[in-house]
Amino acid sequence: MDLETKLCQNCRRNFTIESEDFNFYKKIDVPPPTWCPMCRRERLLSWRNERTLYKRKCAATGKDIVSIFSPDGPINAYERDYWWSDAWDARQFGMEYDFSIPFFTQFRKLMERVPMPSVFNSTCVNSNYCNHVAKSKDCYFVFASFQNENLVYSSQCGDVRDSSDILTANSSELCYEVIKGMKLYHVLFAENSENCNDCAFIYDCKGCQQCFGCTNLRNKSYYFFNTPCTKEEYQEKIKEFDLGKRSDIKRAWTLFEAEKLKAIRRPAFFVNTTNSTGDYLDQCDSCKYCFGIRMGGRNCKYCMNGGYTLNDSYDTFGCGDNGELIYESVDAGLSGSRFLFDVVAYGGTNVEYSLNCHGSENLFGCIGLRNKRYCILNKEYTKEEYEILIPKIKAHMKEIPYIDTKGRTYSYGEFFPTELSLFAYNESLAYEHFPYTKEVIERRGYPWRDLPKNEYAITVHTENIPESIADVFEDITKEVLECGHKRTCLDNCVGAFRITPQEFSLYKKIGVSLPELCPNCRHMERIKRANPFFLWKRNCGKCGVSMETTYAPERPEIVYCEECYQGEIY
Ligand SMILES: [Zn+2]
Ligand SMILES: [Zn+2]
Ligand SMILES: [Zn+2]
Ligand SMILES: [Zn+2]
To answer: For residue 492, how far is its CA from the centre of ligand 2 (angstroms)?
Structure first.
């Protein structure tokens, strides 16, 4: 089929489906989407709560647990290890498919019955307040990360130790406030940099040591705001900025922001990538509109975060690890294929509209199953029965679609409606990418949950948070600090925060002052600083060629096409 223009059911704007897209939909046997790519992204992300945590009791053992499921929400949660044990069987909640009511209504009923694991972690030691984290030790408030140690308040990290406040980094140590870093040692306030030691306030630097306030440098030492110095001059100059003092950090940050505006930027960060568009792609081929796909992606479109061999997939978040034919799914793969409309699926094949099912084959509308076959709404069938029922159910979904409170219809081929999500909109990643006010979110028919206020009385107001780390002692861990945003922002601000003993010793070790924002606000500040997962057409600042980039045309940064960038910087 040729290119087709359609009206998005959700935002009522036109979007195009290209002939390569039709080929994909045909290959996995689904009808083409009725929502545009951005609305599909928002709907998908509304089913992933990465970092909103609650305290509650395990529904089986009664133990106190930390969970991504609110205690006053509709979902039952088991402590993680109990959920993964053989002490219970999710088939006990199996339901007969009812051809008189919509599929999604039945699925939601099942959702309210089958317990979920408190968090999606695996093989972690002393890392309770984490989610979607694996093989980690002594981590606190770390999300979507693996193999880290003594890391706090960070997301998307691999192999990072003794660090705090990181958004996406690998193989790094003693770092603070880093966005997209690789092989950094004792680097503070850095973006898009790799292989650097003992640097602060750097953007797009590689192989540098002892640099401060610098951009676009390659293999340099002793540079101060992009000016070369002798070792002695450098040591004298950096004395102007004691990063143990908050006012000095702010002053350096202002100067650095101005320096950054002079930097030459690449349209996108690609490594060994061919025939692709998007940003942060590593070893990808023929990936379009993809972001954060690392260590191998091929023939993918609209995929975000993930990789490690993700092939022939569309509209995914956090998918891969030898996954293929994945469509509109969150956190699916792990040597699996043909996952359609799934949330959390590790291994298996031909799993549709399922939640947290692993190592299974031929499931439809199932929740919490492991190593099962031929199940619909958690009820087991013979292969023959299953093969007769599935086409009937797909036809039924078309005849009696689910209609949400705003009149949007969902038949076979649509992802789960946001209003039926496991999570409130503002608990989910949708809120990070599309941060609307509560009023707007409710007007759009999406659930909102007021986050619990920090129950402790504030003992140190923002203006009284000690200015210098030198003046802070262990007793700070007993105080309740006020967040500088005072719950007036759209960051899920909790108003107050504590400094944990682990965090306190990290700040001392790294040599940086105490923060004055709560962890949620700090995270959102980094999200806002990082470029969005969105592409605009813009002309190269040097040769004028048209290119696709995450920098909107009206933004003030200097953006060159890849060729012109390489000509200047390498
Ligand atoms: Zn739309
Ligand atoms: Zn806050
Ligand atoms: Zn805030
Ligand atoms: Zn150019």
So the answer is: 7
